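Severity: low
Component: inverse-folding endpoint
Summary: output formatting inconsistent between runs
Steps to reproduce: submit the following structure tokens with default settings.
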């Protein structure tokens, strides 16, 4: 049997350009406000079921057109100290959203994020954020961009076009062709620029529409998975939880994982073998960083998903380690592959 798995969408961009606030708008949450130092310091993950995307998109998308079960968003820090976390997020992604503040334009970590996307050949779109700050902008809360833009005076529209063409120029220098999303003819060779405001919600329906559309139209092949394939993933964080001991928060990006499965977690010298005691899933739209004790127990989890794994023998596991579900046939092979990486 084959299945279409949830695409992994990674938010990348310079510090404070609005990655977490964009996700807050989609989730209906206020994670960004509670972050220490008002910056993101870890990789986050949130599953957005297709029903919620359908609600937010309104008439832009028909439910019958959906083939993906939802989107799994990965949030990354924009602060310059966290290059390795951005790189890890970028490497996991099927598609990325490069968030650029419309006032500040391209900044050092925007360039760095682009380098990561080039290195992993990750398709991406640009969310040109904070359009509510363009002088004269008239807000219509949560409105699709194509509706909002018709409400703006000519002068404001021209200002926005200038911002967009500044980004088109930056992307051109980096070797990418780009255009405002509603003028893109072929997303396989043109980067779509979606003007949004994470604060007012304008353009968020368009961003979601483009992400679902591009995922389904241009890389559906990558999303077709065998339903029983052994799971593969990456460790995001190792956490001590009250009553559970050491646990790992992971992204499962391929296959299936079951309670009772054995996994190998790759450390360079000696992969660690352990057995899944329980699988804990955040509720839909909940950021895995914020779940506290509010998880749902699962017997089986399909990719792509952010989950907490409870298992013995996690003392020498670190963030960034890969893991795979093993069985008697493939254990030696996977061990050798992990040791040679
Ligand atoms: P890091 O994770 O630390 O890299 O930052 P970030 O990209 O996640 O930015 P964050 O979402 O934390 O937003 C930074 C600041 O910009 C916050 O004060 C937000 O309220 C503000 N902000 C984000 N989006 C918008 C927007 O669309 N309009 C306006 N006016 N402010 C915004
Ligand atoms: Mg953030």
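Observed output (run 2 of 3):
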């Amino acid at each position: 049997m084959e299945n279409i798995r949830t695409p992994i969408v990674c938010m990348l961009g310079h510090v404070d350009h609005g990655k977490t606030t964009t996700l807050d708008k989609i989730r209906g949450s206020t994670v960004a406000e509670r972050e220490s130092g008002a910056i993101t310091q870890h990789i986050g993950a949130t599953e957005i079921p297709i029903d919620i995307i359908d609600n937010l998109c309104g008439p832009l998308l028909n439910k019958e057109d959906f083939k993906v079960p939802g989107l799994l968003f990965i949030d990354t820090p924009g602060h310059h100290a966290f290059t390795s976390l951005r790189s890890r997020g970028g490497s996991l992604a099927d598609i990325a959203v490069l968030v650029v503040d419309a006032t500040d334009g391209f900044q050092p970590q925007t360039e760095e994020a682009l380098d990561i996307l080039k290195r992993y050949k990750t398709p991406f779109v640009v969310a040109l954020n904070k359009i509510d700050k363009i002088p004269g902008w008239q807000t219509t809360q949560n409105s699709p961009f194509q509706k909002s833009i018709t409400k703006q005076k000519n002068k404001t529209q021209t200002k926005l076009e200038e911002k967009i063409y500044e980004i088109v120029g930056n992307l051109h220098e980096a070797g990418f062709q780009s255009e405002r999303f509603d003028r893109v003819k072929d997303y396989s060779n043109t980067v779509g620029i979606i003007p949004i405001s994470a604060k007012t919600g304008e353009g968020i329906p368009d961003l979601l529409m483009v992400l679902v559309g591009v995922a389904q139209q241009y890389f559906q092949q990558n999303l077709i998975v065998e339903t029983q394939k052994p799971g593969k993933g990456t460790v995001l964080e190792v956490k001590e939880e009250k009553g559970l001991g050491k646990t790992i928060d992971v992204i499962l990006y391929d296959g299936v994982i079951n309670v009772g499965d054995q996994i190998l977690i790759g450390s360079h010298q000696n992969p660690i073998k352990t057995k899944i005691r329980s699988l804990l899933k955040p509720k839909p739209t909940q950021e895995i960083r914020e779940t506290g004790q509010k998880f749902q127990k699962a017997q089986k989890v399909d990719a792509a998903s952010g989950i907490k794994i409870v298992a013995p023998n996690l003392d020498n596991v670190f963030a960034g380690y890969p893991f795979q579900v093993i069985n008697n046939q493939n254990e030696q092979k996977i061990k050798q592959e992990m040791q040679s990486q």
